[in-house]
Specification:
Chain lengths: 91, 902
C-alpha cells in the first residue's frame, strides 16, 4: 500500500468520488432511469433490463473496490481520520 | 429417493458440525488474535447472514411471482456498502468508541443514555422480527415437507405430524442450539467469534448450494438463452412494465434501512467488527456475494415455471427441481443450503435480540431490585445476564412460532419478510439523525419511532392476519367502528396504493416528519448534547474526547464492587490492577480518576448496555453529572467555534495595540529627527557668526597692506577672540552631546558641595568686580556632602553666577547667593535683580542655544549651551536645576542635590 498511497489522490476528493458513485448508483437503479432500458429487447437471449441491472451492479462493485484501494487506512495515523466527508479539515 | 428421516438426520448432523466449528472458532480466536477468524473475508461472509432462506427459497418464489422485484432486496444493501465510507464507517467507529452492543444501545446512547428509548426500540425489534423468524420456520418446515411429500416412504417418523408440529420442533431445536451457541459466556465487547466462524461457514455452504442448483438448472435447461426464450414463449415475461413502480422504490428503501437497522446485521457489521479496515473489503465483497447469490435466481424461477406442474410452490423450486430431475444428492445439498441460511439467521437474530432484551429490559429491573443487597454475589449479575438471555431467546423464538401458527395459511415467503423490514425501518431515521444531526432530541426520536411503529402495526402487521381472523378482514374492508378513513390499507382515504407501499409511506413519512419537527421544538439535556457531539463529531475529535462525562468522586471500593458484579471478579480485578499500575500506586490505594470512571463505564456498557452502565455508576459516583461549563467546554462545537473566534479577536486586538505602539514610536522618532535638524541648523548658525568675522578681518589684513600697527593689532585681537569663542562653542557642544549620550561619565562620590560653591564664587569674583556688582552672601549651610563630582559641580555654579552677571542690565546690579539644607536636600539659590525671564521663555531657557531675548544685546559670548549643560550635569548627580521665584526682582536659579548621610 505505501506505493499506492504515494500517488494516491486527495482523500477528500476520493470521498467525494464515493459519494458520487453511491448517489449515481442509486439513481441508475430506480425509475425513471431504469425505464430507458426496460424494453422488450434481448441480448444473447437474456432480456436487456436484466443485463442492464447486473451490469450496473458489477460496475458499482468494481468502482467501490478501486476507490477503496486508494482510501487511507484507519489504522495509520490519526490524520487520515480527518479526511471526512464533512468540510472540516483540522488536524 | 430422499426420506424425511434421512434429511432430518442430515440436518441434525449439520448442526452438530456447526457447533464443533463454533467451539473451535472460539478457542482459536481466544488463543490467537491474528488468526484468519479476524480476517476481512470472514467478516464479509458473516455479513452475508443477510441472505436468509428468504433469499434461498423466497427470492426464487418472488421472481416467479413478480419478476425482477426480488433484486431490490440486494440492490439496496449494495448502495449502502458502496457508500460504506459515509454511514457504516461512522457507525463502526462510534460503536467501538462507545462500546455499543445493539441498535437499541446505539440510539439510547446517542439520546442521552435513555433507557426508555432502549426499551421501546427493543420491544419494537422483538415484535417486528417475529414475522421474520416465522419466515425461517416456515421455509425449513416447507422444505422438509417438500422432501417428505415427494415419496410414499418419505414421511417416515413424520407420519401424523403436521406443519405446526414440525415448525414447533424446528423452533425448539433452534432455541436449544442458539442457547448452547450464543450464551455460554459474556464477552467484553459482545463479540462471538465462534458463532461468527460458524456463520461464515454457513455463508459458504448456502452460496455453493444455490450456485450448484443454478448451474445444474442452466445445464439441463440448455443454457440461459433457451430458458429465457422458452419462458417468454409461455408468457412469463421478465420485463413487465409494472416492475418498476412504487413497489420497486419501496422495497429498495426498506432493504437500505434493513441492512443497517436489522438487529443481526447491526450485530455482525458493527458489533462483531474487530477492525474498521475490514469494511474496505466488505464494501465491495458483500455486494459481490449478493450478486452471485442473485445470478441464478431468475433462471431457476423461469425454468421451474416452465417445467414444473402448475400449482407447485415456486418458493421450493431450488429444492424440487433437482428432485424432479432425480438428483437426490444435489437436492440434499440444496436442502442443507436452505437450512444453513435459516439457521444462521435464527441464531444471530435471536442472539442480537436477546442481548437487547437482557441489557435494556431485564438488567435495569434486576439492578433496581438488587440494589440493596450487596457483597454476597460476586458473579451474580453475570449469571443473571446469561439466564436473561436464554429466556429471551426462548421468548423470541416462541413469538416467531406463534406468528407462524397464526399466519400459516398464507403461502408466499417474501411478503412476510417485508413486514419485518417495514418495522425495522422505523429505526432508520433516528439512526441517521443520531449520526449526522446534532439537534435531534430524545423526545423527538422516541415519539417518531413510537408513531412509526403504531402506523406499521396498524397498516402492515395487523392486515397480515387477514386470512385467519374474520375480525381483521372486516376491519380491512370497513375500518374500525365503520370509520372508513382509518382502514389499515387505505389510511386517510389514500386508496389504490400497494399495501406495503402504503404502510411504508405513512409510517416513514410520519416518522421523519415528527423526528424533525419535534426536535426543533424540544430541547436537549446536557448528557444528550454531549453524546450528540461525540456521535456527530466522531471523526473530528481525537480519541481522547470520548471521555467521561460523569464527574464527581467515588471510592475505589464501591467501583470495584460494581465492576465485579457485572464483569466478574477476574476481569474487574484486572481492570483495577492495570489502572493502579498506570497511576503507580497500590491497587488498594487507588483513587479513581474521572478518566478511569469513564473507562469503567464503557467497559460496563460493553456488557450491559450504555444506559444500564450509566445508571449503575451514577448510583455509586457521588457528585453532579456535568456542570454547565463542562458541557459548554467539552461538547458544544458552536462553543468551540466561538472560542476560536474569541481567540482571533484577542489576537487582532493585540495586533492593534502593537500597531499603535509602533505608530507612537514612529512619531517620537520623527520628533527627534526634527529636533536634530533644528540643532544642526542652530549650530551652523552659531559657528557661522564668528567664522564670518574671522574671515572678513583676515581678508582686510591680507589685502590692505597700509594698515597701521595699532589697527593691525586690533584686528588680530578680534580674530583671536572670535577663534576663542568658536573653540569654546565647539567644546561646549562636544561636552553637551557627550553628556547626553552618557559618555563623559564620572563616578559620583561624596563631595563637599559647600566647598565647590565657595570655589565658584572665588573664581567669579573678578568678573563680579569688573561689572561693579554687589554680591550679597546670604545664609550659608555648613559643609555638606552630596553625591557628585567637585569640578563639575563647580562648573555648574560658575555657569549660574556668570549668567547672573552677564544678563544683569540693572543700574545697580545685585546678586544674592544662599545655601541651606532642608529635608535631606542641599539647596543653593542664585538670584539677581536683572530683568528676569519672561513667562514664555521660562520653559525654553534650559534648551540648547536658548539665550533669552535680552541675550541679543550686550557683549555676552555664550552660545546658549551653559544652562543645558548644567542641567545635564545636575541630573547626572540625581539632583535638579530649576527656575524659581526669587527674593530679588530678577531670576533665581535653584540647584537641589541629595545630601549624603554619613
Amino acid at each position: 500500500m505505501p506505493r499506492a498511497k504515494a500517488r494516491a489522490p486527495e482523500p477528500r476528493k476520493l470521498a467525494s468520488g464515493m459519494l458520487v458513485l453511491t448517489g449515481f448508483g442509486a439513481l441508475l437503479l430506480v425509475p425513471p432511469l431504469v425505464y430507458i432500458f426496460n424494453q422488450p429487447i434481448s441480448h444473447f437471449g437474456v432480456p436487456q433490463i436484466v443485463i442492464y441491472l447486473f451490469l450496473v451492479w458489477v460496475l458499482l462493485i468494481i468502482g467501490t473496490a478501486v476507490l477503496t484501494h486508494f482510501m487511507p487506512r484507519s489504522d495509520g495515523s490519526e490524520a487520515s481520520d480527518d479526511t471526512d466527508d464533512s468540510t472540516e479539515g483540522d488536524s | 429417493m430422499l426420506s424425511a428421516d434421512f434429511v432430518i438426520a442430515t440436518a441434525v448432523a449439520y448442526v452438530g458440525l456447526l457447533f464443533v466449528l463454533a467451539y473451535l472458532g472460539d478457542r482459536r480466536a481466544r488463543t490467537n488474535k491474528r488468526s484468519f477468524l479476524h480476517s476481512p473475508a470472514v467478516y464479509t461472509l458473516s455479513i452475508s447472514v443477510y441472505c436468509t432462506s428468504w433469499t434461498f427459497y423466497g427470492a426464487v418464489g418472488n421472481a416467479a411471482r413478480s419478476g425482477l422485484e426480488f433484486l431490490t432486496i440486494y440492490l439496496g444493501p449494495t448502495i449502502v456498502f458502496v457508500g460504506w465510507w459515509f454511514v457504516l464507517r461512522r457507525l463502526v467507529r462510534i460503536s467501538h468508541n462507545q462500546r455499543i452492543t445493539s441498535v437499541a444501545d446505539l440510539l439510547s446512547s446517542r439520546f442521552g443514555k435513555s433507557n426508555r428509548l432502549a426499551v421501546l426500540v427493543t420491544c419494537i425489534a422483538v415484535i417486528g422480527i417475529a414475522p421474520y423468524i416465522a419466515l425461517q420456520l416456515k421455509a425449513v418446515t416447507s422444505s422438509i415437507q417438500a422432501v417428505a411429500g415427494a415419496s410414499e416412504v418419505g414421511r417416515g417418523s413424520l407420519t401424523g405430524i403436521d406443519d405446526v408440529g414440525l415448525a414447533f420442533g424446528v423452533a425448539a431445536g433452534m432455541a436449544l442450539f442458539t442457547i448452547l451457541f450464543g450464551t455460554r459466556h459474556i464477552d467484553a465487547k459482545e463479540q462471538h467469534h465462534g458463532v461468527v466462524a460458524a456463520i461464515a461457514f454457513e455463508a459458504v455452504v448456502k452460496l455453493t448450494a444455490l450456485v450448484a442448483v443454478g448451474v445444474f438448472v442452466v445445464y439441463i435447461g440448455g443454457g440461459f438463452e433457451t430458458i429465457f426464450s422458452r419462458a417468454a414463449e409461455m408468457g412469463f415475461a421478465v420485463q413487465a412494465s409494472d416492475s418498476f413502480g412504487d413497489r420497486w422504490v419501496t422495497t429498495m428503501i426498506l432493504s437500505i434501512c434493513a441492512i443497517i437497522c436489522l438487529p443481526r446485521q447491526f450485530q455482525v457489521t458493527v458489533v462483531e467488527n474487530s477492525n474498521e479496515d475490514h469494511l474496505r473489503v466488505a464494501g465491495w465483497a458483500f455486494p459481490a456475494y449478493m450478486m452471485l447469490m442473485s445470478l441464478f435466481i431468475l433462471p431457476i424461477a423461469l425454468f421451474g415455471l416452465t417445467t414444473m406442474p402448475a400449482g407447485s410452490n415456486p418458493d421450493m423450486f431450488a429444492l424440487t427441481l433437482p428432485m424432479a430431475a432425480g438428483q437426490d444428492g444435489l437436492a440434499l445439498f440444496a436442502f442443507i443450503g436452505g437450512f444453513s441460511s435459516a439457521t444462521s439467521m435464527i441464531i444471530l437474530e435471536s442472539i442480537a435480540l436477546s442481548i437487547m432484551v437482557s441489557n435494556h429490559i431485564v438488567m435495569p429491573i434486576v439492578l433496581r431490585l438488587t440494589a440493596g443487597q450487596q457483597r454476597s454475589d460476586g458473579q451474580g449479575v453475570t449469571s443473571m445476564v446469561l439466564v436473561a438471555r436464554r429466556f429471551s431467546i426462548v421468548l423470541i423464538l416462541s413469538l416467531g412460532f406463534f406468528y407462524f401458527f397464526f399466519t400459516r395459511d398464507s403461502d408466499a415467503l417474501a411478503p412476510i419478510g417485508l413486514i419485518s423490514f417495514a418495522a425495522i425501518a422505523q429505526f432508520f431515521p433516528a439512526v441517521i439523525a443520531a449520526l449526522f444531526w446534532r439537534d435531534a432530541s430524545l423526545r423527538a426520536a422516541t415519539l417518531a419511532i413510537a408513531v412509526g411503529f403504531i402506523v406499521w402495526f396498524w397498516c402492515s402487521f395487523l392486515p397480515s392476519f387477514e386470512s385467519v381472523s374474520p375480525a381483521v378482514a372486516r376491519l380491512l374492508v370497513d375500518g374500525p367502528w365503520g370509520i372508513s378513513w382509518l382502514r389499515p390499507e387505505a389510511m386517510f382515504g389514500l386508496d389504490g396504493l400497494d399495501p406495503l407501499t402504503h404502510a411504508v409511506f405513512w409510517s416513514l413519512t410520519l416518522n421523519v416528519f415528527i423526528l424533525i419537527v419535534a426536535s426543533l421544538f424540544t430541547s436537549q439535556s446536557a448528557l444528550e448534547r454531549i453524546q450528540a457531539s461525540v456521535f456527530v463529531d466522531v471523526f473530528r475529535r481525537g480519541p481522547v474526547a470520548q471521555g467521561n462525562f460523569m464527574r464527581g468522586s467515588a471510592t475505589a471500593n464501591d467501583l470495584f464492587f460494581v465492576a465485579e458484579r457485572v464483569l466478574g471478579e477476574r476481569r474487574a480485578a484486572l481492570l483495577f490492577e492495570v489502572e493502579a499500575r498506570e497511576v503507580g500506586v497500590d491497587p488498594a490505594m487507588l483513587d479513581p480518576s474521572p478518566d478511569f470512571i469513564g473507562r469503567l463505564e464503557r467497559e460496563l456498557a460493553g456488557s450491559i448496555g450504555a444506559a444500564s452502565a450509566h445508571v449503575m455508576l451514577a448510583k455509586v459516583v457521588s457528585g453532579g453529572h456535568v456542570s454547565l461549563e463542562e458541557v459548554m467546554q467539552m461538547a458544544d462545537e458552536t462553543q468551540q467555534v466561538i472560542e476560536y473566534s474569541q481567540q482571533l479577536e484577542k489576537t487582532s486586538a493585540e495586533l492593534r495595540t502593537t500597531a499603535r505602539k509602533l505608530e507612537d514610536a514612529n512619531a517620537q522618532l520623527r520628533e527627534l529627527d526634527s529636533q536634530k535638524d533644528e540643532f544642526l541648523s542652530q549650530v551652523s548658525h552659531e559657528v557661522r557668526t564668528p567664522m564670518t568675522s574671522i574671515r572678513s578681518f583676515s581678508e582686510i589684513l591680507m589685502e590692505q597692506g597700509d594698515l597701521d600697527e595699532w589697527q593691525r593689532q586690533r584686528f588680530v585681537r578680534t580674530i583671536h577672540g572670535e577663534s576663542l569663542r568658536l573653540t569654546k562653542l565647539l567644546d561646549e557642544i562636544l561636552d553637551l552631546s557627550a553628556l547626553e549620550r552618557g559618555e563623559r561619565a564620572w563616578e559620583n562620590a561624596p563631595t563637599d558641595a559647600e566647598a565647590a560653591l565657595d570655589r565658584a564664587i572665588a573664581v567669579c569674583d573678578a568678573l563680579v568686580r569688573q561689572r561693579g556688582m554687589t554680591l550679597e552672601l546670604g545664609q550659608r549651610a555648613r559643609p555638606t556632602m552630596v553625591n557628585g563630582e567637585a569640578d563639575r559641580l563647580c562648573q555648574v555654579f560658575i555657569n549660574l553666577i556668570s549668567n547672573a552677571v552677564k544678563y544683569n542690565t540693572a543700574e545697580e546690579p545685585v546678586m544674592r547667593i544662599t545655601s541651606i539644607v532642608r529635608s535631606g536636600s542641599y539647596i543653593v539659590d542664585i538670584a539677581d535683580n536683572g530683568p528676569g525671564i519672561a513667562k514664555g521663555e521660562r520653559k525654553l531657557i534650559f534648551e540648547k542655544f536658548s539665550r533669552g531675548l535680552r541675550g541679543a544685546n550686550g557683549d555676552q559670548s555664550g552660545a546658549g549651551l551653559g544652562l543645558a549643560i548644567s542641567r545635564q550635569i545636575v541630573a547626572r548627580m540625581n539632583g535638579s536645576l530649576e527656575l524659581v521665584p526669587g527674593p530679588l526682582a530678577g531670576a533665581c536659579f535653584r540647584v537641589r542635590l541629595n545630601v549624603v548621610r554619613s
